[in-house]
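User:
Note these tokens:
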Amino acid sequence: MTNAVMCVDVGSTYTKAAAVDAATGVLLGTASHPTTLGTDVMDGLTAAAEAAVPPGANVIDTLVCSSAGGGLRLGVIGNEPLVTARAAYRAGLSAGARVVEVCAGAIGAADMERLAEARPDVLLLAGGTDGGDETALRTHAEALAASGVRVPVVFAGNAAAAADIRKLLTGAGLDLTCVDNVLPRIGDLSPVPARTALREVFLRHVIAGKHLSARADFTDMVKAATPDAVLTGIELLTDLLGEDLLAVDVGGATTDVYSVLTPDAERSGPRAEAAGTAWRSRTVEGDLGVRHTATGVVEAAEADGLDVPAAIRGAARHRAEHPDFRAETEAEQRIDAELSALAATVAVGRHARGERIGGPTEPLRGGKDLAAVELVIGSGGVLRRDPESPQWLSEAVCDHTAGGFRPPTAARVVIDASYALAPAGLLVTAGHRQAAEALLLSAFDV
């Protein structure tokens, strides 16, 4: 009898299951089911998992990642927008979070009210390099303690202030986790400790707090936020191949872009950005989805100077008004492909050009040169279902040379057709690294 590990991604729309041979990493079966948010997510999870198990397989473990119920909503507090707030923002994205608010600089009551209105699940508090000035960090911690915001806090700031910050915030009734500084030195971004802590807080507080299931075993099964699992899978694939990689995941509500790049000696040296460079990173575009936020795709594409036919505008409005719409005809599927291509072009451009932290007037920071990327991976339901998706994704990403950045110049374009990235990330997290490696090598034919 074959021992299998069941890997399940509980999304806001669909729950996807993949049964993987625990010894060999062979993909034994896959299935999906609409996510049952209206009842109990375990209903859809069980249905998908049962459909994915082939005859004769014995499931020895079930590993789950989830973005249902909004995933991990993160608020960031940093000394000022261009350095520590930016470093914390990047660490949060790498942990699979959706950053819903960033507070930096002189923070007052109005900032705390805005932070509370954003409804974060977790706060990431950063500030100062190790041994640097602690004044702003302490002021921010005092403002947080005095505010009505009461969600778990991860502190990843100046180590010299950690003991006092712990005493202040825990004394105010906040659940606090202290880790190493996300920016120990200027230009030295260190996101891993904060990323790990945010993952643990997500599992400990967020999944239970979403009340997605009444069953305790669901909480035990969840090992990561879905974007965190995907990035882990991408990092492993990059390590196996030894080449730069870019992945674009077009969903119903967001488009996520992941890149794992070889560090540039020049940008890591004296000319490095103060907040450091995230060579393994993710960005999430909350206005670019082919259902819930389809009108955002049209607006963003037009703002970038891309051609958007009139038929696409009307179809986008219909999809946003009816997010459960399913493309059945060839014409409907073609529009889905065109919307997805526009979303990919805009999202990759934003990822490569960098981000603005602190408002629309701030300069772009953290840009990336994608010219050396050798593998582009497309993911998402539309791309998996469309046999033409490798071609139009290549045109949308590699052939778009007017975006203000250098796109991949000689990349292979493949689709995560068997949905291997998230399961591979889950397998690594649970200690099944060899199975994860075999799964990825098989899925991407390398």
In short: The CA atoms of residues 12 and 342 lie 22 Å apart. The first helix runs from residue 41 to 52. The radius of gyration is 21 Å.
